[in-house]
Amino acid sequence: MRPHEETAGPEEGAGGESRRFARTPEDFECLVCGATVRGDGYTNHCPACLWSRHVDVHPGDRAAACRGLMRPVAVEMRARDSILTHHCVDCGHRRRNRTAPADAEAALFALARMVAEEVSRHGPEPAGPQRGGQQVRGTGPGSGAPRRRGRRR
């Protein structure tokens, strides 16, 4: 697994890795396309088809009970790297991970194109966290929620 942006902060150790990050080098065979993948301890997904597997609670710990396949659903191209978002087809868990130099550019661009086509057809996904398939309603400005006045007693 690659370290996430979400794990940075007070728990961050030397080298920018979280104390919750466990480097686990292991090779695997992709369950989707059958490619043999050489793991380097940061490998989280198949570089050929970009699919992953839901095996970690924290990166590298292999503690997730689900073990479902994780479909690549989004790619964010940034100045220095790219971020893949995977969605577990069994339990619905989402996780963001950095791409690797070995990832197939054609697969990354195909995913970006697919996401762009979906957005043009159906509009963007809801931006906020979701609970039970429903958008969690915010209380900030523009959320449509009633504004609370004064102190609540």
From TrEMBL:
This is RNHCP domain-containing protein. Residues 26-108 form the RNHCP domain. Pfam families: RNHCP. The lineage of its organism: Bacteria, Bacillati, Actinomycetota, Actinomycetes, Frankiales. Residues 1-20, 118-153 are annotated as: Disordered.
